[in-house]
Amino acid sequence: MSMISTQAAANTFLEMAFKEKIDVSLMKLQRLLYFANQRYLKDTGSPLFAESFQSWKYGPVLSSIYYKFHSYRAEPIRRFARDANDNVFSLNRDCGDEELINAFYETWRKYKNRTGIELSRLID
Fold first, then answer.
1. Are 53 and 61 in contact (CB under 8 A)?
2. What's 76's DSSP letter?
């Protein structure tokens, strides 16, 4: 069981997005985090995060990520989340937790070319 920080998870998706030059809005980031959590939960029986998703109008939201990036509104996010010491953390591909890495990379592969609105429509 690997619970990870929501910021490291968000930065992992942003790292992939910046590398591939794919725009990620806050809505899209929230949906990617939700789908990764669902995948990990299905594979391991455990959630990725200590923080629970909240039900908002357009889908599930991690409030810590919303407040970290809300200034972008619907625009693409252009920076990583930083901690209080100005450090940037993301997942290490060599962490040894195959289910964890698969949850992120498979979610990214499957959904990277969809918009936040399209991803929201996939959630029932």
1. yes
2. P
**Residues with Cβ < 8 Å from 40, sequence gap 6 or more?**
46, 47, 48, 99, 100, 103
Of 9, 11, 6, 122, nearest to 77 by C-alpha is: 11
Residue type, 77: I
pLDDT digits (tens, 9 = 90+) for 43-90: 999 999 999 999 998 899 999 999 999 999 999 999 999 989 999 999
What predicted TM-score, i.e. pTM, was given to this entire model?
0.94
Encoded tokens for 94: 């060599």
Q: How far apart are CA 58 and CA 62, in angstroms?
A: 13
